[in-house]
């Protein structure tokens, strides 16, 4: 089976700092994979390379067997790579509906009318549980609901790979439970790569876990294997962990 995502020797320098250092990473279709590691390990830089927000200093990225290393971000979105936008990119003055309608329109072929947009928007809002707030200005949503809107915007792109960067940060315990259910449902249709600091979420959700430290992959395995891994424990003890 061709992996959905494969990186070889992927690296990124910032001045003298090699933030991502020769990463060979493979993600298969249908997985929920957690990416963990101490602060500054290179997790956000790694996923930014995958979605094309930044360019690599060395190495290659293949998506579903095609080399995408030099493709601009918007072309990767069209291939099905979605990276959840930070809340700062939500249009606070626009209703929830409009925030989702923009990405839905991008996935529809030209000339498809408002009916298709409306159906696409409402399908996504129902999935994340925001359908009854479609008319609410996004900026008036509670924090947890804004995080759900962020997920909705990602889902509206109908991704094959959904990349979530610390999605549960700032959520209350009850909201985290519904988030876990939502990701499981999403994973029936899309592969999920999730950067997550909350170990409970990692243990419940991920099929496999990849651990990064100082730009490299330190370990990979099932949640249980990773929990028992001595090198992983040492990495977390040695660095402040947020
Ligand atoms: N645009 C940038 N310019 C300079 N250095 C950067 C830049 N982005 C990241 N870095 C550095 O690269 C290293 C990796 O950062 P990155 O944000 O990828 O780590 P992370 O694992 O996502 O950390 P966290 O868990 O704190 O979000 C850090 O030392 C960081 O300071």
From TrEMBL:
The keyword ATP-binding applies. Signal peptide: none annotated. Residues 5-239 form the ABC transporter domain. Pfam families: ABC_tran, BCA_ABC_TP_C. Coiled coil: none annotated. SMART domains: AAA (SM00382). GO terms for molecular function: ATP binding. The keyword Transport applies. Keywords: ATP-binding, Nucleotide-binding, Transport. This is ABC transporter ATP-binding protein. It comes from Aquamicrobium soli.
